[in-house]
């Protein structure tokens, strides 16, 4: 059963990721991106990371994609429909080199990590204890990184507003 | 009844899925010319990395990978916000979001 769910989620993620890349209209790319994020949240659930799955749904499938859709909505992008790169030969070269990277990556992964199965899974804390453990990690062990992220987010708020506001609002 | 145990999901399945999603995102970043779609493909790549982190953290039995995923999510949201603000600025200047208008940065 777990296997069936995993393969279903894998197919969902891969097909919708291909959709993001191949579909010409940016709004459909954004919708396929939502589908991919939901699949990734399902993968997190299958890895017992329930809280992360929730955060994934709220932050990615909710907030980030809404931001993309808002920006797509602001512009009139009819001319952009056919805008892949100019030469097909260049595209082919790029895709082939990424395929090479992929083959090297996957063969090395299979070579190194092929022997860990479900029976090797360590036991985790149950239910709310898992979240408690996560929180104590975040706020005790990694509290410095947490503070740095806070400062980064503050900077990003100021930077994004000042970038988008330069010379009069969002109206192009 | 054929033996199906070779199809049981293990760590390598998650890593392979992550590698594939990462490479799809990479192809998108390289091939697409629409800047908004390029940002979406970067989000795809970050998600692939998140899958790797969560899978390793589950199979190692410690929570450090999950914390890194939190940080990656925060940085991805920040990157999307700044990137989209840049796209808005670019669109106001050029009336297009095609990446070939910014090739004079290529050198």
Walk me through this protein's architecture.
The complex is a heterodimer of chains A (172) and B (107). By secondary structure, chain A is mostly helical. Chain A has two domains: 1-87, NADH-ubiquinone/plastoquinone oxidoreductase chain 6, subunit NuoJ (Four Helix Bundle (Hemerythrin (Met), subunit A), Up-down Bundle), CATH 1.20.120.1200; 127-172. Helix content of chain A is 76%, strand content 0%. Chain A is built from six helices and no strands. Chain A has helices spanning 2-22, 26-46, 50-74, 88-113, 128-141, 143-165. Chain A is globular, with a radius of gyration of 21 Å. The model of chain A has no long low-confidence stretch (mean pLDDT 83). Chain B has 107 residues and is mainly α. Chain B has a domain at 35-101: Helix Hairpins. Helix content of chain B is 73%, strand content 0%. Chain B contains three helices and no strands. The radius of gyration of chain B is 18 Å and the shape is elongated. Chain B starts with 10 loop residues before the first helix and ends in a 13-residue tail after the last helix.
Gist of the model:
The complex is a heterodimer of chains A (172) and B (107). By secondary structure, chain A is mainly α.
Oligomer: heterodimer
Low-confidence stretches of chain B: none
| Unreliable runs of chain A | none
User: Could you give the distance between the termini of chain B?
Assistant: 62 Å
Q: Strand-and-helix sequence of chain A, N→C?
A: HHHHHH
What share of residues of chain A is helical?
A: over 70%
- Shape field of chain B: elongated
CATH fold topology of the largest domain in chain A:
Four Helix Bundle (Hemerythrin (Met), subunit A)
The main β sheet of chain A shows up as: none
How would you name the CATH homologous superfamily of the largest domain in chain A?
Answer: NADH-ubiquinone/plastoquinone oxidoreductase chain 6, subunit NuoJ
């Amino acid at each position: 059963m777990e296997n069936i769910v995993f393969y279903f989620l894998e197919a969902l993620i891969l097909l919708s990721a291909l959709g993001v890349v191949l579909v010409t209209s940016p709004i459909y790319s954004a919708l396929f991106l939502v589908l991919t994020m939901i699949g990734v949240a399902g993968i997190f659930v299958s890895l017992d990371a329930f809280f992360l799955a929730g955060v994934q749904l709220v932050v990615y499938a909710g907030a980030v994609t809404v931001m993309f859709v808002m920006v797509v909505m602001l512009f009139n992008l009819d001319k952009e429909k056919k805008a892949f790169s100019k030469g097909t030969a260049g595209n082919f070269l790029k895709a082939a080199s990424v395929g090479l990277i992929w083959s090297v990556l996957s063969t090395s992964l299979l070579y190194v990590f092929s022997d860990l199965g479900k029976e090797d899974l360590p036991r985790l804390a149950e239910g709310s204890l898992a979240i408690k453990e996560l929180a104590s990690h975040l706020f005790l062990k990694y509290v410095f990184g947490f503070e740095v992220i806070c400062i980064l987010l503050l900077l990003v708020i100021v930077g994004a507003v000042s970038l988008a506001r330069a010379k009069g609002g969002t109206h192009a | 009844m054929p033996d199906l145990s070779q199809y049981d999901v293990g760590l390598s399945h998650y890593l392979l899925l992550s590698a594939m999603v990462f490479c799809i995102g990479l192809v998108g970043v390289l091939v697409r010319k629409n800047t908004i779609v390029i940002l979406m493909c970067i989000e795809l790549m970050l998600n692939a990395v998140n899958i790797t982190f969560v899978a390793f953290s589950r199979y190692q039995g410690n929570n450090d990978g999950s914390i890194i995923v939190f940080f990656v999510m925060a940085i991805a949201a920040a990157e999307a916000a700044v990137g989209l603000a840049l796209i808005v600025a670019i669109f106001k200047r050029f009336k297009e979001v095609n990446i070939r208008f910014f090739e004079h940065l290529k050198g």
